[in-house]
C-alpha cells in the first residue's frame, strides 16, 4: 500500500521518486517542502523560487543563506517534525501569506542569484582576496 494512502494523505501527497524534469512539477505545488538535513548549496530551492513557491525547510548547513527564514520561506530546526507541520499548516491556512513568500522568493532569485549578480559577487570576492594578500611596501 502507498505510504500517502496509509497516512490518509493520498489526495494531497504524492511520492514520485526521482524525476528528470522538475520545473513543471514544482509549478503545481502549493508549497515546496524540503526537510533537508544537509545541503551543499540548495539548487532545489532556486528551482522553487523560479516557480514562486513558498519554501519550508530547515536551518541545516547553507539553507538559511539561500532561504532567509520568514523572507521567502519558513525554516525549522533539523528533524523538528512538529515545526515542519506548523509551518505547512500556516502556509496552507494562509494562501495570501504563502503567495507573498513565493513572490519574494522569485524576486530574490532574480536579484541575488542571477548569473550577472553571481559573477559580480565572485569578482568582488576575488578582488577583496587579492587586496588582502598584497604585501604593503
Describe the protein's architecture and organization:
The chain has 137 residues and is mainly α. It has one domain (3-132): 3-Layer(aba) Sandwich (Rossmann fold), CATH 3.40.50. The chain has seven helices and three strands, in the order H-H-E-H-E-H-E-H-H-H. A three-stranded parallel β-sheet has the order 1-2-3, with helices on both faces. Strand 2, helix 4 (63-66) and strand 3 form a beta-alpha-beta unit. The radius of gyration is 18 Å and the shape is elongated. The termini are far apart. The mean pLDDT is 92.
Following the backbone from N to C, one meets helices and strands in this order, namely: HHEHEHEHHH
**Quick one: CATH superfamily?**
Glycogen Phosphorylase B
The order of strands across the largest sheet is: 1-2-3
Report the CATH architecture: 3-Layer(aba) Sandwich
Q: Quaternary arrangement of the chains shown?
A: single chain
- Low-confidence regions: none
* Number of continuous helical runs: 7
Write the layout of secondary structure elements.
Blueprint: H1 3-6, H2 23-26, E1 32-33, H3 43-50, E2 55-58, H4 63-66, E3 73-76, H5 81-93, H6 95-112, H7 115-132
Parallel strand pairs: 1-2, 2-3
Helix pairs in contact: 3-6, 5-6
Amino acid at each position: 500500500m502507498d505510504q500517502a494512502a496509509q497516512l490518509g494523505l493520498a489526495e494531497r501527497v504524492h511520492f514520485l521518486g526521482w524525476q528528470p524534469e522538475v520545473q513543471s512539477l514544482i509549478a503545481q505545488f502549493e508549497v515546496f517542502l524540503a526537510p533537508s538535513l544537509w545541503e551543499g548549496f540548495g539548487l532545489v530551492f532556486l528551482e522553487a523560487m523560479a516557480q514562486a513557491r513558498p519554501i519550508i525547510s530547515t536551518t541545516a548547513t547553507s539553507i538559511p543563506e539561500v532561504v532567509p527564514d520568514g523572507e521567502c520561506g519558513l525554516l525549522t530546526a533539523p528533524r523538528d517534525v512538529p515545526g515542519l507541520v506548523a509551518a505547512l499548516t500556516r502556509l496552507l491556512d494562509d494562501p495570501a501569506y504563502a503567495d507573498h513568500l513565493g513572490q519574494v522568493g522569485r524576486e530574490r532569485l532574480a536579484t541575488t542569484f542571477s548569473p550577472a549578480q553571481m559573477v559580480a559577487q565572485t569578482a568582488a570576492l576575488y578582488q577583496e582576496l587579492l587586496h588582502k594578500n598584497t604585501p604593503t611596501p
